[in-house]
């Protein structure tokens, strides 16, 4: 594996909501992340961490600056190309899981690729991934609402890797979990990283953040590298 390949390059990102008098939420954010690196982003509530993730994901166009992922300039693409790029290269994990409540666990896992791949093949792959994240077969046909928080997040992790993404964007992935489940999710993310996947993880939890190879703090619109985390 080549550890030096550039995965993400964010240059001078600017974003504000509303009219010109409001502050820039992102005020010249720069970030460079290599392949197979876990990069944590911390910062006070409301400073724009989710906004930054959305800009990185191609879901929220910045006012200025650029996002390059795998040597593709995300905002130079057409919307359709960007959406295809996102589907094939990016996995997502959210604090509130975002599982579809009317679909079974298995159906949730295959959902990102439902229109791209053969359903039978996807089902087999989903079963393998659910095994990988420790979800027993007895839960495969259950609806998400009947699962515990830790189980839901493990299903969400299986869903995030169904397309073998190059990069996973996590927004507070352990925010709704107790310590035991948090540690299990950290372990899974570390294993996914070991397979060569890049992880960008927004978190309030410094114990999660410090699992990263690098930690950045977003404050007053700027991202700065943390030299050391004091727990
Ligand atoms: N669509 C929007 N329209 C207007 N303001 C918004 C919008 N989305 C977010 N904001 C504001 O932008 C700021 C940054 O929000 P964001 O969700 O990115 O912060 P955050 O750092 O992720 O917060 P938290 O840690 O609490 O989740 C907040 O003040 C928020 O109210």
TrEMBL record:
Residue runs in coiled coils: none
GO molecular function: ATP binding; ATP hydrolysis activity
UniProt keyword annotations, A-Z: ATP-binding, Nucleotide-binding, Transport
Alphabetized InterPro entries for the sequence: AAA+_ATPase, ABC_transporter-like_ATP-bd, ABC_transporter-like_CS, MacB-like_ATP-bd, P-loop_NTPase
Domain ABC transporter: 8-231
Cross-referenced CDD domains: ABC_MJ0796_LolCDE_FtsE
Family: Belongs to the ABC transporter superfamily.
Protein name, per record: ABC transporter ATP-binding protein
């Amino acid at each position: 594996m080549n550890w030096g390949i550039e995965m993400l390059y964010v240059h001078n990102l600017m974003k504000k909501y509303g009219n010109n008098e409001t502050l820039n939420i992102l005020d010249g954010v720069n970030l460079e992340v290599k392949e197979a690196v876990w990069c944590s982003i911390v910062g006070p509530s409301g400073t724009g961490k989710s906004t930054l993730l959305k800009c990185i994901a191609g879901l929220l166009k910045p006012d200025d600056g650029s996002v390059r992922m795998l040597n593709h300039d995300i905002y130079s693409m057409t919307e359709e190309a960007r959406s295809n790029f996102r589907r094939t290269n990016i996995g997502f994990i959210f604090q509130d899981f975002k599982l579809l409540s009317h679909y079974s666990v298995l159906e949730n896992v295959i959902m990102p690729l439902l229109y791209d791949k053969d359903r039978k093949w996807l089902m087999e792959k989903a079963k393998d991934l659910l095994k990988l994240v420790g979800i027993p077969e007895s839960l495969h046909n259950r609806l998400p609402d009947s699962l515990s928080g830790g189980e839901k997040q493990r299903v969400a992790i299986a869903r995030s890797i169904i397309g073998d993404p190059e990069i996973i964007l996590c927004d507070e992935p352990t925010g709704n979990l107790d310590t035991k489940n948090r540690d299990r999710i950290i372990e899974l993310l570390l294993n996914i990283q070991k397979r060569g996947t890049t992880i960008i993880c927004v978190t309030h939890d410094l114990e999660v953040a410090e699992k990263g190879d690098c930690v950045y703090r977003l404050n007053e619109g700027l991202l700065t590298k943390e030299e050391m985390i004091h727990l």
